Every structure is written in C-alpha cells, then in structure tokens.
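Same chain as my last thread, 488 residues:
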Amino acid sequence: MNPVKSLLGQTAIYGLPTIVGRLLNYFLVPLYTSESVFKNPADYGVISELYAWVAFLIILLPLGMETAFFRFFNEKEDKDAVFRSSFITVIGFNLVFFIVLLFASQSIADAMMYSEHPEFIVLLGAIVCVDAIAALPMAKLRSENKALRFSTIHFTAIVVNVGMNLFLMLVVFDPEKPMEGVLFILLANLLASCVKLVGTYKDFLNLKLNYNKELALEMLRYSFPLIIAGFAGIVNETLDRIMMKPLLIQAGNTPEYSLEQVGIYSACYKLAMIVTIFLQAYRYAAEPFFFAQSKNEDRNKVYIKIMNYFVAAVCLVFIGVSLNIDIFKYFIRSEEYWAGLYVVPILLLANVFLGIYYNQSIWYKLSGQTKFGAYIAIGGGVITILVNMIFIPLYGFVASAWATLIVYALQMVASYLLGQKFYPIKYNLRKFGLYFGLALGLFFITQIVDMDPNEFTWSKFIFHNTLIAFYIFVVWFMEKPNKLTTNR
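reply #2:
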C-alpha cells in the first residue's frame, strides 16, 4: 500500500475522534468566557495559569517513555519486556511524585498566591499523574494498530470532561463564587483522565513485576534528552502565562489587572491552537508511522511528500482563521477578551512554524541523536525567558506572542540545518516557500485592504474566502490528486 495513503488513513482513524474530541473540549472556552461564568478575565486567568503548570508536568512525569516505547518496540524482540519495563518505571516515578506533592501542597499554593486553595494543587497533581500513567497503555494500543479502541477511550474521556463541565458549570456553579468554578473544572478533568485508566485496565491486571532494569535504563538514556527537549519546548509554549502575572505585578500593576492580562491572552491563544488540534491528530498517527518507515529504502521520498502536504495544510489553517477572525472572535463570548485579538495571527503563524518543526524532528528520533532535540529546545527556552522577562513589563502579552513566533521560527530553521548534516532529507524548499509565501502574502493583502479587520461585512467575507479558495486551487494544481496515488 502507498505509504502516504497509509499515513493519511491512520491520521483519519486516529485524527477524526481526536479532532472531534478536541473541538468538544475547545467549545468549553465559550462557556468559560461567557457572561454567566468567567465574565472577568482575571478568573479565567486563574485556570490558564494552573493549566500552564499542568503542561510542564505532563512532559516530565511520563519520562519520555512514550517515544522510547515506539523506538524499542520496533527494535526489540521481547516486546512485552519493553512495555512492562517502561510502564513500571512510569508508575513508580508518579507514585513517589504524588506522595511528595501531597505533603508540599500548602507550600506550593502559598508560593502561587492561592493560599486558600491547596486543593487546586492536589487535584492538578492527581490529573497529571493519572495522565502520565495512562500514556503507556494508550501508546501500546497505537503500536498494535488498535486505532478503534484507542480512539474510543480517548473520545470517551473527552466526552466525560465536557459533560461534567456542562453539568457543573451550568447547573451547580454559582457565578458569585468563581474559585468554586475552578475547582469544578479540575474535578471534571480528573474524572475524564480516570476514563483512560478504566479503558486500559487489562494492562494493569496483566502487569507482571518482572522488571528488566537494564532495558529500562537503556530506554531512559534514550528518552532523557526528549524529556529535556519537551520540557524546554513547554517553556516556549506556556511559560509566558506563568511569567506574566509576577512580571506585571513587579512592573507596578495590580494582581487583578495582571490576571486579566493572562486571561485575555490565554483566551485568544485558544484561537491560534486550531493549528495545534490538527497537529495533535497528525502526530498520533505520524510518530509510529515514521518509525515503521525507517526500514523502507524509499523512506526519504515519503518524508518529503508528507512535508509538502503538511506545510500546505497548516498554512491553509493559518489563512483560514486569520482571514475570518471577525467570525472566529465570537468563539470567545465576552467582549472583555477581544482586546487581544490582534495577536491571534502572530500566534497562528508561530504554531505553523511549530508544526513544521515537529514534522522535521523525526530526523533526530530516527537517528538516535535525541540530544539535538534537547539542544534546540533549550536554546528556544532561553530566548523565550529572556524576551518575556525584558518585554512583558513594557508591552504585556503582545511581547509573549512575538517571543513565541521568533522562537518557533528559529527552532524550525535550526532543526532543518542540523537535520541536513546528520540525517539528510532533501525537502522541497521551493514548495515550502511557495505555500508559506502565498499564505503570508494573502494575509498582508487583507491587512492593507481592510479598514477594520475585526468587523464582519459580507463583502469582506466573500473577498477573504475567495483568496482562501485561490490558495487551495494553487495547492491542488501543484500537487494534483493523481500524485497522491503514486510513489514518486
């Protein structure tokens, strides 16, 4: 079977439930930002700050074993030993982490200025530990091509999260007690995370404590640079929401105003994450697919084709949202949050670069040069911290948006240059330049023509979407449907 068509099929199988599920989760943002829930952006800022910390922990706690599992599962004959050793390692580490967190919860809450709510810290710890432990059984389903079961569990967890949010926030929640709403959101997330444990219960029941220490250490040596890379990557992605409140307070702003800025920025960032939703669905299928293709003599041709289609797709998402921001803004229900809409195209473009970087990053995973992923991410993390520290006090969240764009662009370029040296894949840079340049050009045309880019008119809607249709036609002409069925 054509490998590109195989990847498209796997992306559809894994991606459809993922996209639908993520969209359901996505539609919680209009609920949270509505007049009847968190009308004040400062209250939504609390949720945003807490979940920024979750993003860090969800990288650390699985110990990078998910990617290591795919690598060793394809290489080792004793596949049960690969799963068992990695799974026991993750379980043990997370149990120790959660016990320590329980004893330190009040101190952590004090440091985060949530002294009256140490339960937030405990619930966050429970969520990330459950997700980390469930990651290996879920990865095992992907490696065994049990896409239907994987998607069913994943989708059910999201439905539970959305259902509990709707019930708790619309029926039980008192708008006069916003911190109660934060608690409800965390409880709904914990219940949803537990669905994955229930869905993979056989892996727990059948787990034998026959631990291969040498294999586990070998996997950890492989995965450790990935942990560093992932951790540094999350610095680029979410640290701005953690740094924003203290930096703005130090600049003389009130805690209320500072949390409002976090809330506005986080809500607008959600619009840019439409690219990330597409990317997440793609990555579920792509990572095991790329490892499986590593033994194919024509693997580089496959990687080049996939990159062409990928760049075209993420650039389409960029112009699709940017050129229709006057419609997408209603996704954020309260006008209090619309003050940050002008950073959405910046963040969308940043996520395009991030997607290309992720797609390129397969070179250091396939070659075992995972240390370079760590170097790239650490470099990006340092730049992120410096830019945010210097410019957030001066320009607020717009500095964070530009920092994100600059860092992801630099990481994309660095990964390409290093990849050409250590694992050469001759990507079609002309097509890359064409698709990216065309998308950016169409965006700037609308910025020059439009008087008010955030106000809807039918003439503007027709004009903008005609440009989007033109972009689609150019991509179709360059790729042509018959090329999808060939192995050239």
